[in-house]
């Protein structure tokens, strides 16, 4: 969890569908939330997920277990 643009946000694994999702609150208190955004649905994900704000944008670092790669996604 991190604050992105002054609003709470979460990057999380959906283990049922083996996908990584991102969701951000619509307000600063986290009373209402937007819908989840698919970050990666390759099905080869695992390990820790890190969410930070960089330049006012959400940035997510995560692992692809199939290729043994570290991946990085930024949302504009």
Order of helices and strands: EEEEEEE
What count of helical segments does DSSP give?
A: 0
- The oligomeric status of these chains comes to single chain
- CA radius of gyration: 12 Å
Shape: globular
**How would a textbook summarize the main sheet?**
4 strands, antiparallel
Strand content: over 45%
Mean of pLDDT: 92
Structural class by SSE content: mainly beta
Spatially, the strands of the biggest sheet line up as: 1-2-3-4
Which runs of at least 5 residues are low in confidence (pLDDT < 50)?
A: none
N-C termini distance? 18 Å
Helix content: under 10%
Overall domain count: 1
Number of strands: 7
Description:
β6 and β7 form a beta hairpin. The chain has strands at 2-4, 7-14, 19-24, 37-40, 45-54, 57-64, 69-74. It is mainly beta. Helices cover 0% and strands 59% of the residues. Strands 1-2-3-4 form a 4-stranded antiparallel sheet, with no helix packed on it. The protein has a 3-stranded antiparallel sheet with strand order 5-6-7, with no helix packed on it.
Lay out the secondary structure.
Elements: E1 2-4, E2 7-14, E3 19-24, E4 37-40, E5 45-54, E6 57-64, E7 69-74
List keywords for this structure.
76 residues; three-stranded antiparallel β-sheet; mainly beta; four-stranded antiparallel β-sheet; single chain; 7 strands
Short description:
The protein has 76 residues and is an all-beta fold. It has no helices and 7 strands.
């Amino acid at each position: 969890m991190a604050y992105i643009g002054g609003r709470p946000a979460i990057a999380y694994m959906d283990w049922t569908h083996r996908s990584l999702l991102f969701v951000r609150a619509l307000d600063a208190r986290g009373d209402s939330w937007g819908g989840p955004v698919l970050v990666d649905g390759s099905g080869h994900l695992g390990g820790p997920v890190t969410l930070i704000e960089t330049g006012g944008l959400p940035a997510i670092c995560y692992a692809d277990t199939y290729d043994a790669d570290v991946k990085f996604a930024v949302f504009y």
